[in-house]
Structures are given as C-alpha cells and as structure tokens.
Specification:
The structure holds 2 protein chains of 2 kinds. In chain A, about 40% of the residues lie in helices and about 25% in strands. By secondary structure, chain A is α/β, with parallel strands linked by helices. In chain A, a hairpin with a 2-residue loop joins strand 1 and strand 2 (about 25-45). The longest helix of chain A has 20 residues, at about 345-365. Chain A is globular, with a radius of gyration of 24 Å. Chain B has helices spanning about 1-20, 20-50, 60-70, 85-90, 95-100, 105-135, 145-170, 180-190, 205-210, 220-225, 230-265. Classes of the chains: A alpha/beta, B mainly alpha.
Chain lengths: ~375, ~270
C-alpha cells in the first residue's frame, strides 16, 4: 500500500521529444526538445493542486505522463502506487481525465448514452452508477440536458457533461487540463464550485492545469509553476507573491495636477492629470504611506490595487528569461509587467491565440457522418 | 462478460448515431435505387448481347445489381464508415482521449462499425432490394437457410472491410494527412469488391487475382452465396482467413502506433 502523503509521486521525471526539422531538400536535422526537465514533487491524497505555466511549458505533457499515454524519458513516476505506462488500463479505473479542448462524449448522441457507455466501460456497479449520476446531474445542473445530443450543447454545458463523465467511476484522482477554457463567467464559477465540493465531500485529489489564474485562486491551495519544463515554484498560493517580489499599487486622486508625489518607499509609475499611480512593495502596509501622502498633498480620493497573480507570474517568467538569456527585450518586458498591474500584452496575445485554437478545434470536430 | 456488454453498448451507440440522421438515410436509399435502375438497364443490355457472361444468367446478374446496391452503404465501399472519423481523431490528437480509456482501440471501433452496418443494412439495404425484387425478375432464394448463410457472409465481409480500413486509417499516425491513403484504398475497394462489375466477368489473370484479394469478401462472396454460386463453407473459410490476417496486422500496427504516440507524443 502506498503512503497517503505521496499519492502522486514524481522523481526527476523527464520527457524529451525528438523533433525533426527540414533543413533542405531531403535533408533534416534532429533536435531534442526537453518538454519536461527533471521535475520532482509529491501530491498527497485529497490535495487540490494548480499546475500553471505558459503555452508549451510542459503542462499537458506532464498530465499525459500521469495518465500513462506518454512514457517518461527518464525518472520515476507513480500514481496511487501504479506505474502509469506499464499499467495504463488498471490506472484508468482510478483516474478521471477532462481535457478542456477535447471531449470524451459521443458527439451525435444524447448525453445519457455516453454515460451508459461509461457505466459499461468502467464496470460500475448499477447502484453506484445511478447514485453518482444523480449526484452529478444535480450538482452540475445536467437535468434538462441528458436527452440532448452532445453536438447541440453549449461549450459550458458540454464541459459540465465531460466532468460528470470523468467522475462516474469514482476516481481517486481527477486531472483537468484547461477545464474552463472558453467558458463564460457563470459557467466558470459553476465548474469551480463543483470542484471544491467534490474535494470536500469525496476527498478526490484534483490536479488542474490552467491559463486562468482565477481557477487557481478559487480552487487550489497549492500551486506549481512550470516554465520550460522546469518546476519554478511549488507552494501555497500566497507565497507566490513573495517569490515574485510583487508590488501593490496605490492610486491617488489629488485636487489638481501636481508633479510626481515623493514618498518613500513608493515610486510614481504613472501620472494622468490629477491622478497618480504609486508602486510599493506588497510586504509594506499601505496605511502609513497613505497618512504621509494625506499630510503633504491635497488628497481627494484613493484606492489600493492588489498585485494580481498573473502579473506576479509574468514577472517570474520575465526574471527567469532575464537571468538565462539576458536580452534587453525581456528586461523591458519585465519592467512593464511589474508596473502595469495587469498581464503584459504578450501574455494577452498568447491567451487569445489559445482561445482561437479552442474555437478552431471545436469547429473542426467531425460533426457526424459523411456519406 | 462485462467486456461483452461494453462492446454491445458501443455497437448500440454506433447503430443509434446513424439512426439520428433520417434525412441522410432517405437520400441514400433514393440514390441507391436510382443507381440500381441505371445499372440494371445497363446489365440487361449487356446480358442480352452476351448471355451467361461470367456464368450468371440475366436474373442472377440483376440480382447481383440490387444486392450490390443494398450492401453499398453497409460495407461503406464508397466511404462513410468509421475511418474518416478515426483519421480525424488521429490528426487532431483527440485519439489521446481514446487511449486513456480502459478499452481496446480496435475492438472499440469494430463494435461501433458493426452497429453502424446493422443500421444501414436495415435503413439502406432492405428498400433497394425489395424495390429490385418488385420491378425486376430476380433470382432470390426461397429457403431461409440460404438467407441466413448470406447474412453470415455479410458479417464476415464487414469484419474484413473493417480490418482493411482500420489498417489504412492507422497510417494517419505517420502521414500528416491520412486522407490520400484512404482514397487510394477506397478506389481499390470499389474496383476489387465487384461494385463496378462482378469479379466473374474480369478476364483471365486479373479475374483470378481479383477473386483472391480481400475486397472480394465484401460483395462478390456474399452475393455468390445468395445466388447459390459459391460453397458457403469455402466462402466462410476464405473470409475468415482474411479477417484474421488483417485484424492481426491491424493489431500490430496499432501497437506500433501506440508506442510511437507514447514515446514521441501526439
């Protein structure tokens, strides 16, 4: 029997892909791509862990190794004491997987048909199946959808349908790869709430990869940040702020246009008419700062902006690039992110490209038969 | 036991998936009937000119036409089976979803394909054959046993057809676009199954070879069983042998493909 504290265990796990690139007519060059580079960590039973990183960081590769459909090139990997690639089928009964951009449901048929299939596929005892289905239907609000063909479901409905499909066989672990991608605010909230309940009531271990940091903020207590295949941070969400040396922003409205306010340790990062933006370390308290400004300047209004986690992480990536590459471009980028209070424009582009990909995937899915 | 129920559920799903597209089915029946009429009059002209061509009399030749139309969609000789979907799933990487399930990929698709064929036998097979029998003089057998043997030959033909297309579809793991291979195999299927002309009328060595190729198991063999032109046991042995060889080859290729994905990534 495995120990509960290392329910999932990775020991210096690596995944190297051979990529062949054409360099000329009939000539090609082999190149190694290290998608996952010596990652070690453990996840205890019942933990909810967020796994984040930019596109191509190695998130999906890790998930695929954890399901057994990819073999690690090196290192050791165990899930519930099982070696995933060796005993993929046995492991399949213990895990549930939801790929946000793919569906496990039968496209042409009513939702309930896919569930009946799961019933047989995982050999779920009848009573258990009915109980789990009823519960999912209630909590994921699927009541009116069971008889609707999957192709007619909205993305949010389909995602809830997919999550239910992954849970009918009572898996110990649930992997979710981008479960909220492309969903609207209400659907996202619903999925997150369901995951929290699932974890609280059943003790299901949840491993979640996402681009949406609110997923992490609202669902996970622990977060792992990966970039270029390396684990850059592993710990509680709150610790990320310190690790990223983040700053809070104080926005002050003065009576009139004035030269930049001078109050240590804050520094003015932006001035727009009578409004000024001051950045100060997140570890400092805002109260004395406000008091000193109010003393010396005609203060009308103010607000404090918490550093959002996206900014913190973007800064982390930028710092890493700065140290490893040392390019001027990245250091400029890094400055921008630490100040802007929002994601960088590069990040935004990445996100929207991802969304476009999701839409294209959906449009390209075979809609049925060609006869 | 449990596995049997799973694949039965997959087959039932395959049946229902196709049953949802009623308009497509009706259009298909109409097309098959029109094709059947055109071919029937062509064959009448041909057999008037050359009676007993390929060993068939005119009634047998006309029966062949309508059996071919009845089996066209069932055997997906012109495409429309599972293969497009499988190729697409491989291309988009959706096949990853299939791989983490506790099921056998080949059996999974075979079960779905048999479900689809069962629907098309009822939905698209019966009407053209009945239409042909009403408006032409056909050589259909009276004994129920012959019909039963015919259904057995159709089932085995389906398995052979599946095994061929499964092999072709799996090449998509290596080729960027698997559709070219599928189309080439489709052309072979149309020609060598006997869909254009019965293989009996192919001359000399070409006929000999065509009758030995696996595609003849799809249409020529079941039709010959129905027409009383072939020995049922010999036919079953021929089809069964091809089915086993091709399924085994598919399994080998599947192992190689899975390993490639597992080692190399999607």
């Amino acid at each position: 029997m495995h120990v509960e504290s290392d329910f999932i265990r990775l020991d210096r796990v690596e995944k190297v892909f051979q990529v062949r690139r054409k360099t000329g007519f009939l000539r090609s060059e082999r190149r190694e791509v290290r998608a996952v580079d010596s990652i070690s960590c453990t996840v205890a039973r019942g933990e909810m862990v967020g796994y984040i990183g930019p596109n191509g960081a190695g998130k999906s590769t890790t998930i695929k190794m954890l399901t057994g459909i990819l073999t690690p090139s090196g290192g050791r990997l165990r899930v519930a004491g099982i070696d995933p690639t060796r005993e993929r089928t046995r492991l399949a009964h213990r895990i549930g997987v939801v790929f946000g951009q793919r569906t496990t449901l039968w496209w042409d048929l009513p939702l309930i048909d896919s569930y009946r299939l799961m019933h047989r596929m995982y050999r779920i005892p009848d009573a258990r199946y009915r109980e789990n289905l009823d519960r999912c239907v209630e909590l994921l609000d699927l009541g009116g959808l069971l008889d609707v063909p999957v192709r007619q479901l909205s993305l949010g409905q389909r995602m809830r349908g997919d999550i239910a499909a992954a849970l009918l066989h009572d898996p110990d672990v649930l992997y979710l790869d981008e479960p909220t991608i492309g969903l609207d605010v209400i659907s996202k909230a619903r999925v997150r709430e369901f995951l929290r309940d699932l974890n609280a009531e059943r003790g299901t271990t949840v491993l979640l990869t996402t681009h949406d940091l609110q997923d992490i903020e609202q669902v996970c207590r622990r977060v792992m940040v990966i970039d270029h295949g390396r684990l850059m941070y592993d710990g509680p969400l709150a610790g990320l702020h310190e690790a990223g040396e983040s700053e809070r922003t104080l926005v002050v409205d003065l009576e009139r246009e004035l030269p930049p306010v001078e109050v240590a340790p804050a520094r003015v990062v932006k001035v727009e008419g009578p409004r000024q933006w001051l950045a100060f370390p997140a570890s400092e308290s805002a109260a004395p700062l406000v008091a000193r400004i109010a003393e010396a300047y005609p203060l009308v209004d103010l607000s404090v902006r918490e550093p959002d986690i996206e900014t913190v992480i973007a800064k982390m990536y930028a710092d890493r690039r700065e140290t490893s590459v040392g390019g001027r471009q990245t250091s400029v980028d890094g400055r921008q992110t630490s100040v802007g209070g929002r994601e960088t424009s590069a990040d935004r582009r990445e996100m929207s490209a991802d969304r476009r990909k999701a839409t294209a995937d959906r449009a390209g899915r075979p809609g049925g038969m060609v006869s | 036991m449990g596995t049997g129920r799973l694949y039965a559920a997959v087959a039932a799903g395959g049946f229902r998936r196709y049953a949802t597209y009623r308009a497509a089915t009706a259009a298909g029946v109409f097309t098959n009937t029109v094709f059947g009429l055109i071919l029937a009059y062509t064959y009448i002209a041909l057999w008037d000119e050359k009676p007993h061509l390929g060993g068939y009399d005119q009634a047998q030749a006309l029966t062949y036409v309508w059996v071919a139309q009845a089996l066209l969609a069932v055997m997906s000789i012109l495409g429309g089976g599972f293969e497009n979907e499988l190729v697409e799933r491989i291309r988009t990487g959706d096949v990853a979803v299939d791989l983490y399930r506790p099921v056998d990929l080949q059996l999974w698709w075979l079960a779905g394909e048999l479900g689809r064929a069962a629907f098309q036998l009822l939905g698209r097979g019966v009407v053209p054959l009945v239409f042909g029998a009403l408006f032409f003089e056909l050589a259909l057998p009276g004994e129920a046993l012959v019909w039963l043997v015919f259904l057995g030959a159709v089932l085995l033909g389906l398995v052979v057809g599946f095994a061929i297309r499964y092999l072709v579809a799996l090449w998509a793991f290596w080729l960027m676009d698997g559709m070219g291979a599928a189309q080439l195999a489709g052309l072979c299927g149309i020609f060598f199954s006997g869909m254009l002309l019965p293989l009996n009328v192919f001359p000399g060595a070409l006929g000999e070879i065509a009758r030995l190729l696996p595609w003849s198991a799809l249409l020529q063999k079941p039709a010959d069983v129905l027409l009383g032109e072939a020995d049922p046991l010999g036919t079953f042995a021929f089809q069964g042998a091809w089915a086993m060889v091709l399924l085994a080859a598919g399994r080998l290729l599947q192992t190689a493909a899975t390993r490639k994905v597992v080692i190399q990534g999607g």
